Amino acid sequence: MSKENGQEYIIQVRNLKKHFPIRKGILLREAGAVKAVDGVSFDIKRGETIGLVGESGCGKSTTGRTILQLLAPTEGEVLFEGQEITSLGSSNLRRVRRNMQMIFQDPYASLNPRMTVGKIVGEPLEIHSIGSAASRAERIRELLEIVGLAPHMINRYPHQFSGGQRQRIGIARALATNPSFIVADEPISALDVSIQAQVVNLLDDLKQEYGLTYLFIAHDLSMVRYISDRVAVMYLGKIVELGDCDEVYEHSLHPYTQALISAIPVPDPESTFVANRVVLKGDVPSPANPPSGCRFHPRCRFTTEICENEEPEFRNLGTTLQAHYVACHHAEDFL
Questions:
Q1: Which of 76, 112, 154, 225 has its CA 20 to 30 A from that of 165?
Q2: From residue 186, how far is each of 115, 190, 220, 254, 310 by CA, in Å?
Q3: Smallest Cα–Cα separation from 60: which of 91, 88, 37?
């Protein structure tokens, strides 16, 4: 396990990039690239939850999948417990992946409709050759109980469950190999509002009981604040702000973060918080042709000449004990 400033890090991401080639013509020559993730760096401490937020299409899910090596990175490094994993062969990667799992966004699409719940939850145990047939069956029943499902449901098929129950099945599958790190890719966005809190509470309970570490990807900022220890704000393939959850929400230093937080629904329509809502102008630029300088400058109300020409440094404006990173030329104005 790597340590920096006395802190143990389970995940360390360094300058991670994932570009998808754009091919044109009869010969399908590469004419450009969609820069879905373009130079992302952050660390995740053991036992903490980092919330990754941003607009749809900003690269959140691609970041999570690239960290787990479900997508091969274009450039950069990912260290898991101090081991660089982007260059590992398939057999070595499989051993590491036993400790890194994913909860997918859509519980309707992520479960094989032709497999029973028992086979779905037990598949990771078979792939990693964990236990005997009898011990696997017992483990599957245990996992169903852990996520709040009755063990007698083991022979049912996904279509016989509700959306919330299907997501619990996905969580049980992710827990099967006793992982230490889980990427939760918008695990509540496809669920009814009444079910979302149940699933988030389940994830939080599992974290406390089993010492899990989460990368929680979402666009619901109120839910991210509830479950996360730190939050990273992503815009057009880059992280623009990263810090302690309460610090970022109450003292955000990037104009994009301020706009996102101002959009959180407030029960009181006469609140000054509503009156100060920030409405962003224009649309999100294409990741195939991002703007020069600061990528947010075409939509920012504080844009100056330096924003258009120079990419801002991702720097710490917090303290040694409570870091607060931001990529904005004018961040000091918001301190």
A1: 225
A2: 24, 8, 9, 23, 33
A3: 37
What are the sequence ranges of the domains in the chain? 2-99+179-334
- Can you give the pLDDT at residue 1? 44
Determine whether 270 is exposed, middle or buried from the number of CB atoms within 10 Å of its CB (0-12, 13-18, 19+).
exposed
Confirm whether pTM is higher than 0.85.
yes
* Closest-CA residue to 239 (of 38, 57, 105, 30): 38
108 pLDDT tier (thresholds 50, 70, 90): confident
Express each pLDDT in 12-66 by its tens digit: 999 999 999 999 988 888 889 999 999 999 999 999 999 999 998 899 999 999 9
Residue 130: both structure tokens together: 């964990």
Q: How far is CA 147 from CA 20, 205, 255, in A?
A: 36, 10, 39
Average pLDDT, the chain: 91
* Cα–Cα distance, 176 to 78 (Å, whole number): 23
Contact 137, 215 (CB under 8 A): no
Amino acid 273: pLDDT: 54
* Cα radius of gyration rounded to whole Å, the chain: 21
185: exposed, middle or buried (Cβ count in 10 Å: 0-12, 13-18, 19+): buried
Torsion of CA 139, 145, 149, 154, to 10 degrees: 30
At 299, the pLDDT band (50, 70, 90 cuts) reads very high
Contacts of 78 (CB under 8 A, 6+ apart): 11, 12, 13, 14, 16, 66, 67, 69, 84, 85, 86
